[in-house]
Amino acid sequence: MTTINRTAATTTAAAASRSTPTAPPAGLSKGDSGPQVKQLQDALVKLKYMTAAQVATGPGTFGPKTEAAVKKFQADHKLPTTGYYGDLTHAALKKELGKLGGPTAPTPTTPSNGTFKKPPVINAPSPNFNERGGKDIDTIVLHHTASNNGAGDLAHMRNPKSEVSAHYMVDRDGKIYQLVNDQKRAWHAGKGELHGVPTDVNGRSIGIEIVNDGGGKTPYTEAQMKSLTQLTGYLKQQYNVPMSNIVGHKDVAVPKGRKSDPSANFDWERLRKGIS
Q1: Global pTM?
Q2: What is the model's pLDDT at position 215?
Q3: What residues act catalytically?
């Protein structure tokens, strides 16, 4: 048995050395599994952050060893050592694999016939999420944070005691923070309905928080609107979201009048023109 295992590990290592793996799509974290995790592990093996023996025994599970390898890679490349494989880590991994002379992965977040690319995001993982339960993404919900303090809003949504989150937050300087992976269920909408039909809005939607006090007098900044348009356009395109399902929190919250965001001075016409 020992001989067979050693032979398998040797074969795996030899195969890895003959080809250069590609960087998988961003958005992987501890607990995920599947072929994209295996692709990440193969890349980490090639760059000597993991061994072939560590990844030869499973179908691709993002466990403690993979997380430790990602953190080491992030530290070596002066990235935040979150252990989350996000856009910045993806870009660095793709660059390092390119130096080996092999093929590099395409950026999978941009369909070949698409208009919008995913804008740069800063990964700021929140623990406040759960699984979608098999529901498809078909809705985008916009919110205002009810303050002009982006740092405070971000901290609140990353605090497990708050039990709230969103997938993205667009700060007043236009920076976009991603708190929850698109494929997970963020906690942003509460009890709701869509077009008058009761539904689990969180289970089917992407939530975007825009830093604004919501009083109706504080303008949404030019930088915010540009970033929001690019992000919303990308998400609409990526998940085939109909324009009628790009809504405000006030449009889905029940009972009616429970929420007012985004505020009355939000420029819906500009956003809709920008993503049409």
Answers
A1: 0.62
A2: 96
A3: 209
